[in-house]
Amino acid sequence: MSDITREVSGSKGRYVLAQDGAEAELTYSIASHHLIIADHTGVPDVMRSSGAGKALVERLVADARAEGVKIVPLCPFVKSLSRRHPEWADVFQ
Q1: Which of 27, 31, 50, 75 is the most exposed place for a label (fewest CB within 10 A)?
Q2: CATH number at residue 31
Q3: Total structural domains in the chain?
Q4: Domain limits at 84?
Q5: 68: alpha, beta or left, given left = phi > 0 and alpha = psi -120 to 50?
Q6: Is residue 93 part of a domain?
Q7: Which residues of 6-41 are buried (b: 16+ CB within 10 A; e: fewer)?
Q8: pLDDT per residue as tens digits for the range 8-67
Q9: How far is it, in rounded angstroms, from Cα 91 to Cα 37?
Q10: pTM of the entire predicted model
């Protein structure tokens, strides 16, 4: 799997994982210096079952920990993973 890149523009951000010409993404909104809202995860059909979505969420969690940010999991996929990974509870609201 390729490296995940992070893009931030104003109050919006996204993580992108590119693989074989396709892109999976996790988008978020920056609510404050200490709070972000994970609002969408999109994985194209050619990348499904590859672990791309989980890899994006893992990067989101790692960055949130490193930056002291809390995550509101508005995206159903992120919310579902946060419930299955209690070890991430420190960054989710």
Answers
A1: 31
A2: 3.40.630.30
A3: 1
A4: 4-88
A5: left
A6: no
A7: eeeeeeebbbbbbeeeebbbbbbbeeeeeebbbbeb
A8: 999 999 999 998 889 999 999 999 999 999 999 999 999 999 999 999 999 999 999 999
A9: 12
A10: 0.95
